[in-house]
Amino acid sequence: MTVVTAENVAEILENDIMVKVAGVDADGILRGKIMIKSKFLSSVQSGFGFSSAVFGWDMHDMLYQGGVDCSAEDGTYADFTAYPDLSSYRRLPWEDNIPLFLLTFFAGEKPVAVCPRGILKDLTNRLCQQNFKARAGVELEFTNFQTPSEDGYSSSANPRPNLAAFLAKNAPSAVRPLTEGMFGYSITRPVASKDYFYDIYKTAGEISCDVEGWHTESGPGVYEAALAVKDVAEIADRVSLFKLLTRCIGMKHGATPCFMAKPLHGLPGNSGHIHISLTDLEGNNAFARATPNPSPRWPDLEHVSDDGYHFLAGVIDAIPDIMPLLAPNVNSYKRFVENFWAPVWLTWGLEDRMASIRLIAPPTCKPGATRLEIRTPGADVHPHYALSALFLAGMRGINEKLDITVPPSSARSEQNDKPQLLANTLDKALRRFTAPQSIARKLFDAKFIEAYAASREHELRLWREAVTDWEFTRYVETV
């Protein structure tokens, strides 16, 4: 990736007439616009005005109702100041290589409390003061549908990307997956849509959003992309950018990628597993022990350092209270079904893929790869909020030297160690998130908690008012 500075940015943009800028909103969606190059260059140091409405409305531009919102304090939706992050520079090949810069939002001299990129920047600064760096990788599963038109299905030769118009006149069940059947890790299924499949992979590399593993997952039309491990702020941006690029590439190929946690009944959902670790400032893994522990509390922890132990304890302690940051939508909780590879209980264990936290450590990996895989999030996860919450939780564990209160799966007694059930609705998760003694309140400031909770209450309110297809079909003739 080209290194852009205030001194060379004008030279790098010499042949451009416009620049695209985008910030991340409270739903993890990129919101942006096109700017004339001269205005962009004049804003590199001083920033520019950007409507605070992007934090005051939902993913369909409906203003949040009732209580605190995420925008300007006085309710006027006055401009925030947006600062371009020159280190985020990329060019978008599907838009004639227009340059793109990501934004961070300020209200006056203070970072906006709910600005996702601002929260992560603050986290990385705090970790650096303690001689740590945060590293993460994210695996995104997503279902791909054929993009329909009102009078039939489009194709790569005749793409007509108007899924919303189709759904206005048809039931969601009428939307067809790109391929049929269950075939994870298939080497034949991608051939049916190879232009789309490989275009995503190739384009991800072109915009510095490298995919290190790319395959079909179990489910009709489901792919999984494992985004390469990076510093935490960079990987969060890459998750948002990957979703952007798949949607844009899909338009060209007559496909609609879907990152809902549970798009189809009776099938596994789309996961968004997050791998996290700490290193020191020289890059040495902070979770790994130099020599095996001769008397670990459980054999699972034989190769885990004291910092790794306390970090894991902090994450275990926090997960029940930070669920809305890991599973942010009403639909997120439809994914938590037993025997569908989604964790229903608060559990952990060495190489346990059925647990909510999978510890990956020697002897199954090299010491430098020691990490935690958080298996709770779905593909609809807000990467910036979730990663902030997980690392803040882990650092609380280190700073307060917390003990692990939950035995690993291998040591759990069926009779005496029944695991804690995680929230199975957004409503229940929010009650824990906002409770006076919630661990979330120990990790984030009060303004963020209230603003984010208001945005999720808004989602719940809309859902409670909705009449679903299931309700209509079940009751239309019988009640």
From TrEMBL:
Molecular function, one GO term: glutamine synthetase activity
SUPFAM superfamilies in the record: Glutamine synthetase, N-terminal domain (SSF54368), Glutamine synthetase/guanido kinase (SSF55931)
Any single biological process term in GO: biogenic amine metabolic process
Tagged with keyword ATP-binding: yes
Top-level taxon in the UniProt lineage: Eukaryota
Transmembrane segment boundaries: none
UniProt cross-references to PANTHER family, sorted A to Z: GAMMA-GLUTAMYLPUTRESCINE SYNTHETASE, TYPE-1 GLUTAMINE SYNTHETASE 2
Protein name as catalogued: Glutamine synthetase
Organism (species): Sarocladium strictum
